[in-house]
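Weekly modeling sync, notes
Attendees: AB, CL, MP (scribe)

Item 1: holo prediction request
CL wants a bound-state model with PMT before deciding which constructs to order. AB pointed out that an apo prediction alone won't tell us much about the pocket. Agreed to run with the ligand included and paste results into these notes for async review.

Input as submitted:
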Amino acid sequence: MIKSPMTVLQGKTIALGITGSIAAFKAAELASALTQAGAMVDVIMTEAAQRFISPVTLRAITHRQVATDMWEVPAKFEIEHISLAEAAKVLLIAPATANTIAKLAGGLADDLLSTTALATKAPMVIAPAMNDDMYAHPATQQNIARLKERGVLFVEPSFGRLASGKIGQGRLAKLEEIIGTLSAVLGREGELAGWKVVITAGGTREPLDPVRYLGNRSSGKMGYALVEAARDRGARVILISASDRPAPAGVAVVRVETASQMQVAVAEAVMGADVLIMAAAVADYQAKEVAAQKKKKTDETQYLELKRTPDILQGARGHFVRVGFAAESEDLIANARHKLDEKELDLVIANDITEFGSGFETDTNHVTMISRDGGMEALPLLTKREVADRVLDAIMRLARLRGKKKNHGEGLE
Ligand code: PMT
């Protein structure tokens, strides 16, 4: 049976401020996603927000009281804004209008949301949504800069069609991006806080000519799941991506295309790292010569001369935990063990790519973890996020065995 992933949101109290933007209706979806992830969502709505969406909707979604009025005698809280401010692990304001951002920057406290914002010690995440000219206005940008100086995190609005009909920057960011930023904030105190984790993802592409390339079916899903799981445990994550997927919020990303580019990026990123996980499907061969112009078709049979690409994992050495994946279509365990020995890895994740629901492009994966010390753990079919969490558990066990202490960018001690 596939269980839903246990995320950093589970059991956390999140104060969700909703302000008077046309995007307020999207806050319902956001509240729903957070609630489904196991968070307790305390919604605080400004008066203007209630003109766009009813508190009843949010109450039904979160199964909790929705706070709307500072002067109403609260059913549960003694001084409502103080209770909300103290209970919150994070204050998220989405969507945030220019007006609310200005109030917060100026330290005003004239409604329940701005009072809570002033009273809370919890980190604050703001996702603005407004007309593009209002967003670009120097007053708004200065207010945002002031709040950033105070440590407030912003999830930038995206470009697209606005309520006015214009195309511009002002749409509420995608929910995944908002939730990703929230997860990164909540994960800060996690068990990987202080660790630097480098993860590769996606399939490399080796050019043949300006049009064609040698590639593979890797989507990057497995690597990205590892990135999110490490981020949610508080790690500083560097993602080296050969996939087109947008990077998860809160992580540094280096985009690469070829194995050689990935090798350079990995060599740089592993300096001071604690863990390297190579989930990328790296091409083993590249064209001996890349044609400068598009190859014309002829009636002749064509032959491609290939040469080896660098073995990145083999060459990436240091005082960090080295983890490889072995994508196998036969003799899974024997082949994975061979890679563990050959590349002198600490851990190899043997990945059965023939089974339905496992391997490339799927949302689930079936793997067996084999460690250098001889340990072997066969996992059932799980979501890639669950596999990622189990891989991180195994890495932490290995690191503990090696006497890892909390580190500050010096690699394993
Ligand atoms: O991206 P998805 O669609 O989610 O699919 C996930 C996946 C199937 C790609 C992933 O789970 C996986 O198995 N990745 C490793 C694929 C692979 O290239 O395996 P390999 O057996 O060829 O390589 C072994 C290890 O050496 C890998 O960690 C690989 O990153 C690394 N390698 C390989 C070749 C090379 N030139 N340099 C390397 O560093």
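Recorded for review: The chain is about 30% helix and 25% strand.
Action items: CL to compare against the apo run; MP to circulate these notes.
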